[in-house]
């Protein structure tokens, strides 16, 4: 992974000193809250329902053992001994004190981490495929370019006061595991065709996002030679910065501009801007690319056999292990190695929450068996990207000890949930207890396995931090006359077939949600053509009607219909 | 419902003055800004609106004094038809410090239009954003925020001296010390 | 017809720490909402808010606002779910 050189160290150290001074000026009254708020947000510090919250960037989801240990230490020393992994490859601490924040940032800087631009109307933490560098279906490792974007966007003087936040995601693989269609800019590394044959470049998508006006991103550039990435991004950002709406915070994201202008007109403006930009002054010099790329050179792995007797034996004798192996352990690009997903979704637990002890346990495993690398997924789980197959049993046993061996990756209990009303001041309703209740309802692993791949996502309000729009089943907390209610959407997908889910009907009170989900799953199981037809495929084939009827009863003739909640 | 606190008066009234900061220090402002209804002054460097610059350019140029333009972040400038090369100064307003359009406008002026004159920031210019403005090509600042004036008078800045972006210096290097990764700086 | 005034208390977060506090007697900011001063008319509320603004101006608290409370049975309790969770000092899970 990338290692800071002296320059990077000096940069984050200066940033900590700057923030320490800003906090001091705030406490002395030289900065008003209005003046200070954008500054603290650009250092990841929110004021939430109960306290300040610190959002720490995990750039493109990559962590070393040392970094994860330091996160555990920081959570224990200055917070309450746990953190919350988010859908944006960040980790949030919920009980930060403003007066402690500079010391926490200094502790992060010690291990080459920071909170820079994890909030605010600026370019946020760039996210990437959590399997980058190890996935068998990869064209090129996107982490190199994610690191390039991290550096380029860090305190980019022109783009710190954009109309609204700006999120970039990258993938270098055939399968999209980074939800690029739901980002302000999504980048996919592709091989050039025709005139571009032999080159590698980016397919650039723009204007995706969730929130109150969800959009799937549109294609902006079918092939951008990779060496021009930064100048092209700079052109797109400049058009957005100058023309994005600033009169209405709900219409300020780039998706609104792109859809108001149309993709063609937006593309024309970006191309015109790009044509005027002196590219060599902005694009990364080749030697700097080489310098960064070296850090992401593939591990030198001894080739190992692709089957292992001990693993096979354990699989035959231990159903829990077999299930975990089937659901959480993925193929690695090198034979004899595996990608191991660590679930933070044990039914009944808070999705994405990790105690300091759990972080330390994962750090130790990565050190012993995982080449010192950990990844964070947008599904709020962790990954050991490179584990030798022969070590998989030992890893499993250690995970069991720490409550981290639930074998439910991408299954119905692998629920994405935002903090909701338990922590978030913008929330309409709680998300965590609903996630817990649903997961406990589906606590039987055999039932979960039988349902098969199913992405269930919950947000506590329309801001959609819990990605409910892109869930196969999405649950949105709403406020219905002062009580927490939940609207259900079906058919969303965050992947290559990205789609926004459709609302099924009137909302349910919290206690009825698990039943409703069970009913929906029942309709799917009864209607699927075979066990291999996924929930999403079946829904697309069957349409919403059978699900609606099961939940709300068959539609009555119009004259008799009782008016919906006044 | 959340109500926001009103802005505070954090510095005493006598500090509420406006000063021009330029080239690393406070400087006298030789320009006079006039609105469209005011006759042009004689023999004084003048700042005119875009409307006047477009409609009465000959009259303005006949003054034979340095001319400044009060730009508007919503109006597109055309380097050729607007004859930007004849301007000594372009003034870009920051109505709120959170409105970042001025940064992009300045970069366009410097990097795309090749404007070599002075670019001046007015409005809500605060100590924490001033280095960003410098890096985007601004070189003078009309400041009325008390703590910012005090900090500048005391030689204080709020900045991260290390910068990753090779292009976006503006002319900042003449007034603040910036470092880039050594190799990149050498490549310039 | 004017809506009847509903009883309210003034809340904020302490600037340095961020914890939730309510305006109480003697200019004190306390964690326990039961100790908050309840405004029973618009005038009382305005006085509390003015007092709170002074605390903002002296960098003591931030994010001041008023919330509706229910005084049935003595001590003030927040009406909304959100303020109930906020007053309880932590998440419900
Ligand atoms: C607890 C404090 C949080 C606050 C105040 C907050 C605020 C917001 C707001 C206002 C939006 C809507 C932005 C827009 O549509 O323009 C949003 C979107 C989003 N947030 Fe959060 N959020 C919080 C926590 C989280 C967490 C915990 C996650 C990850 C689990 C997250 C990830 C996202 C994502 C992925 C989106 C939607 C994607 C998009 O930007 O279109 N946020 N957030
Ligand atoms: S979706 Fe709403 S409730 Fe959930 S974290 Fe985002 S802003 Fe808060």
Verbal overview:
- The complex is a heterotrimer of chains A (566), B (188) and C (93).
- By secondary structure, chain A is of the alpha+beta class.
- Chain A folds into 4 domains: 104 residues, Sulfite Reductase Hemoprotein, domain 2; 161 residues, Sulfite Reductase Hemoprotein, domain 1 (2-Layer Sandwich); 93 residues, Sulfite Reductase Hemoprotein, domain 2; 137 residues, Sulfite Reductase Hemoprotein, domain 1 (2-Layer Sandwich).
- Chain A is built from 18 helices and 21 strands.
- In chain A, strands 16, 17, 18, 19, 20 and 21 form a 6-stranded mixed beta sheet that branches. A 5-stranded antiparallel beta sheet of chain A has the order 1-2-5-4-13.
- In chain A, helix 1 runs antiparallel to helix 4, helix 6 crosses helix 8 and helix 7 crosses helix 8.
- The N and C termini of chain A lie far apart (56 Å).
- The C terminus of chain A is likely disordered.
- With 188 residues, chain B is of the alpha/beta class.
- Chain B has one domain: Rossmann fold.
- Chain B is built from 6 helices and 8 strands.
- An 8-stranded mixed beta sheet of chain B has the order 2-1-8-7-6-5-4-3.
- In chain B, strand 7, helix 4 and strand 8 form a beta-alpha-beta unit.
- The longest helix of chain B is centred in the middle third of the chain and has 12 residues.
- Chain C is α+β, with helices and mostly antiparallel strands.
- Chain C has a domain of 65 residues.
- Chain C contains 2 helices and 5 strands.
- Chain C has a 5-stranded antiparallel beta sheet, with helices on one face.
- In chain C, strand 1 and strand 2 form a beta hairpin.
- The termini of chain C are far apart.
- Chains in contact: A-B, A-C, B-C.
- At the A-B interface, helix 1, helix 2 and helix 6 of A face helix 3, helix 4 and helix 6 of B.
- The complex binds protoporphyrin IX containing FE and iron/sulfur cluster.
